Amino acid sequence: MSGRIHNEALRSKVMSAPDAAALVRNGWNIGFSGFTGAGYPKDFPEALAGRIDAAHHQGEEFKVNVLTGASTAPELDGALARTGGINFRAPYQSDPEMRSAINKGISYYSDIHLSHMGPQVSQGFLGKMDLAVIEVTAITEDGELIPSSSVGMNRTYLDYADKVILEVNEWQSEELRGMHDIYYPIGALPPNRVPLPILTPSDRIGQLTLKVDPEKIIAIIVTDSPDRNTPFKPLDHDSKAIAGHLLDFLSNEVKQGRMPKNLLPMQSGVGNIANAVLAGLLEGPFENMTSYTEVIQDGMVDLLDSGKMRVASATAFSLSPTAAERLNNNAKDYRDKIILRPQDVSNHPEAIRRMGVIACNGMIEADIYGNVNSTHVMGSRMQNGIGGSGDFTRNGYFSSFVTPSTAKGGAISCIVPMVNHVDHTEHDVSVIITEQGLADLRGLAPRQRAKLIIENCAHPSFKEPLREYVKLAEKVANGLHTPHDLESALSWHIRFLKTGTMVS
Amino acid sequence: MSGRIHNEALRSKVMSAPDAAALVRNGWNIGFSGFTGAGYPKDFPEALAGRIDAAHHQGEEFKVNVLTGASTAPELDGALARTGGINFRAPYQSDPEMRSAINKGISYYSDIHLSHMGPQVSQGFLGKMDLAVIEVTAITEDGELIPSSSVGMNRTYLDYADKVILEVNEWQSEELRGMHDIYYPIGALPPNRVPLPILTPSDRIGQLTLKVDPEKIIAIIVTDSPDRNTPFKPLDHDSKAIAGHLLDFLSNEVKQGRMPKNLLPMQSGVGNIANAVLAGLLEGPFENMTSYTEVIQDGMVDLLDSGKMRVASATAFSLSPTAAERLNNNAKDYRDKIILRPQDVSNHPEAIRRMGVIACNGMIEADIYGNVNSTHVMGSRMQNGIGGSGDFTRNGYFSSFVTPSTAKGGAISCIVPMVNHVDHTEHDVSVIITEQGLADLRGLAPRQRAKLIIENCAHPSFKEPLREYVKLAEKVANGLHTPHDLESALSWHIRFLKTGTMVS
Ligand SMILES: CC(C)(COP(=O)(O)OP(=O)(O)OC[C@H]1O[C@@H](n2cnc3c(N)ncnc32)[C@H](O)[C@@H]1OP(=O)(O)O)[C@@H](O)C(=O)NCCC(=O)NCCS
Ligand SMILES: CC(C)(COP(=O)(O)OP(=O)(O)OC[C@H]1O[C@@H](n2cnc3c(N)ncnc32)[C@H](O)[C@@H]1OP(=O)(O)O)[C@@H](O)C(=O)NCCC(=O)NCCS
């Protein structure tokens, strides 16, 4: 029995994960906590997977819809996807088993902007929520919940679900208490929505705890398991070069008077390259920085430790195992530097636009006209999802996208004639960066962008084929605004599918 | 000499349009007033075109950059485009001559979200502004400006341009005074931006006039010319059917408790179909409606006249000649029902998201997975531009797109396997409507959307080919999330370019 449950009455609801899983019915719409490998329930999903497997062995239909904050970990997405029992998944995932179920057509996946998820659930667009399963650090005497290493969609799921299961995870440091900022008015529906009173990343506007109607709690599970995130790849030449180009660009913006000396709040996306950019900032000339972002990666913690960054606002941690351990052991020291908010606050267009956040996200590929694909491989396969990249890209001061110029050992050019899927339109992309260089697309027309992107960003081995595409397209196109030869626009992807390489 | 210029000192700056045009230099970045055929300068652009033609006849280089609020009219875009002297154009246009210059590669065009235009100019991303040319209704005694039939980018251009030319247009009713709401803090740069204090479309938050530094005024031109907008097409069977589907959908949303009885503020895009939807609302069951939109079309004025709509907030009129005349003659009667704001307020993500605006916009085509193309014809040709459709689509309560199911007499299907350009991604599109029916895409995965869009929205003559595409794609695709056959995904467009029809 956990000493983390300070509310007497709720102690009686403690049970084993399998007993809790037995309460679930076929077809339920379940909202899970969890955001980029942080704060997801650790035991319940595997127990539910067992229940689904057992039903399937009996020949019974058993499927559930899995809604989360964002990606989770093998214990949640992996365990449930493996059963084939996920009917529907939203809004973001990055687990190999989950990805496979989506791409095999076993699970339906709706790839929703993270800032849209709260409103869509509250507005009733995703159906009735049957159950919320939420990891917490502790339960207070008066039955309020101390959130754990992510906040994500928890407020919304707790408010809208008919029933609630809590996982009290004793691995999470009790000193996370005080790090969260839960702003309840964000859940209002129009015409009752009010301005979001955040002016700067350090503004605290809400309360420290999550509220829950105790009547809805049907089970409490006690666990002691670490968040599980994959470690970042060590910095290599390419990622350092990309970070260098961005730093030079930022320095010049400051010099031109287009940005304050301490920059504007930084947003940094998921993935290795985004983490490398943060490492670059550690070496850079900027002091007194702030961050208004979605996830706190290793590089962000280093920036806070160094004193170069003053405060970071996010909705979740996304730390390597060693960084997670370090943070967990020193949570108290970070409480005045880190604020974790609900994802409909961390990713809110209103806040991002007002503060002029500098957006920096990874991508799969960009095309010569500045359209960006963050999600699809060769037209049909889902990689992860758009996550919050659209929230920050559309609303930021300006938006940048980073990728190595090639993938799969040089077989794939990440700069292509036409992207195979568009997540960020030409209207939204300000800057593209590869290890080769940087293309500043602000105020440029498509043909001007093409020149810059090819000459500055494409890998040398793909530059000439791209130039040839432009030449051909300008000859055959039905208009010279965005010249395309529709017959060969996707031919690089087709070639890759047929031959395993885009090189002809 | 105009009695509209109440400031003594400024009267001395009155001159002819050609004299004013003579002050312009090659290469200038010029910000013009004008938004969907309303409030653009009427005489200066033609005089400038004359000056450019003369320079070209002398063999001199003479080009300017033309920035506006949105589209203008033949007297501005047409006159200047015809000279070949527009080097760069942003952010929206719909004039045949301008379109032709863009598609012939004579003019560069950057198709920018209308809500991004203010920030991009203020942030210095579009370069130094040399000149603002702004139509006004009158100049007050203390030198402030009474705006005319559009506000658009005027505040920003007046603030940022080095020099200013005013056109005082006596055709504009003096009783427009009192209709405008100019909110100055919207121009603040981060970290000094503050919440936009609009809670409901009728909120007035600014002042009635535009400010200008009198030192910057280099010329004032007096004109007496009407705004020139093309009349709307009469309602036909298709547009009535589309309006009917949307009305049924809205009624059901109210019935399901997902929307208040008087709906939420409506946004209605440009074009004939959008206007038809407004006509549909006139017949519909909803009372006490409001609108938070970009342009006030004929149908919106009818709704205000009928009493079914209480108030409409926009940045410009977009009226047929008869409706413009009617409004101009009775401007006083509309002053408490219509508010014209700067476009960075009318289209602000913050306001749109907070109020839960219902977005409804026209489109060129949608694909089976819910991506929408608003701008490009067959891959390369620019039609008009994205305008404000992205501002409303991304941030609204939900977003809908309307189009007849076919174009060019049935030769083109407006539902295709893959759109030839993406302006609104699958993440942003809630509802697609043609005369055939409505597809409610909320909470659906791509394969589910495809079924609905094909069965509910495609024209009967294209249904079977679309079903066949899906069958083929599911067989050959490298993943079943968004099954595509990249070899034939764009084949319908290619066929049209080769044979003049998408029918095989
Ligand atoms: C785009 C994204 C996948 C890149 O992540 P990353 O860790 O920097 O990228 P990697 O280089 O490790 O690439 C991931 C995979 O995509 C593959 N890939 C990269 N570019 C590719 C391309 N152009 N075509 C095909 N595959 C490509 C890589 O080979 C790798 O494949 P593997 O897993 O089989 O090894 C990641 O940033 C993402 O999911 N973005 C979308 C969500 C987002 O931006 N969130 C931020 C919100 S705040
Ligand atoms: C998309 C848009 C052009 C439709 O406008 P509309 O007046 O309803 O449309 P029309 O049916 O008259 O079509 C306009 C032209 O496109 C052509 N067209 C329509 N669908 C087409 C398709 N799928 N493929 C090729 N051409 C197509 C029409 O034939 C017509 O051509 P024409 O001018 O040569 O006769 C218009 O809504 C627009 O510009 N939208 C983008 C901006 C926007 O949404 N603004 C709102 C902001 S609040």
Automatic annotation (TrEMBL), chains A, B:
Alphabetized UniProt keyword annotations: Hydrolase, Transferase
Sequence ranges assigned to domain Acetyl-CoA hydrolase/transferase N-terminal in this UniProt record: 9-221
InterPro entries hit by this protein: AcetylCoA_hyd_C, AcetylCoA_hyd_C_sf, ActCoA_hydro, ActCoA_hydro_N, NagB/RpiA_transferase-like, Succinate_CoA_transferase
Active-site residues per Swiss-Prot or TrEMBL entry: E294 (5-glutamyl coenzyme a thioester intermediate)
Pfam families named among the record's database cross-references: AcetylCoA_hyd_C, AcetylCoA_hydro
Highest taxon of source: Bacteria
Protein residues bound to CoA: I364, N384, G388, K408
Domain Acetyl-CoA hydrolase/transferase C-terminal: 327-469
GO molecular function terms noted in the UniProt entry: acetate CoA-transferase activity; acetyl-CoA hydrolase activity
Assigned protein family: Belongs to the acetyl-CoA hydrolase/transferase family.
Family matches, as NCBIfam families: YgfH_subfam
Protein name (record): Acetyl-CoA hydrolase/transferase family protein
Organism: Tessaracoccus antarcticus
Taxonomic lineage from the root: Bacteria, Bacillati, Actinomycetota, Actinomycetes, Propionibacteriales
